[in-house]
Amino acid sequence: MSNFDQTLVLIKPDALKNSLTGYIFSTLSEFHTGLRFAGAKIVHVTSMLAEEHYSEHHGKPFFPSLIEYVTGQIHFKNEPENQRVIAIVYMGRNAVKKVREISGPTNPEKAREEKPGCIRALGTVHLIKNEKGEITGDRMDNLIHASASDEEAEREIKMWFKPNDIPPSMHAYETRQSEQHFYYKNGKLSENYLPQSVCILAPGDIAWKSDLEGLQKIANNQPSSITLQAIIAKYLVNENRNEM
Ligand code: ATP
Ligand code: MG
Question: Which fold has domain 6-161?
Answer without folding.
Answer: Alpha-Beta Plaits (3.30.70)
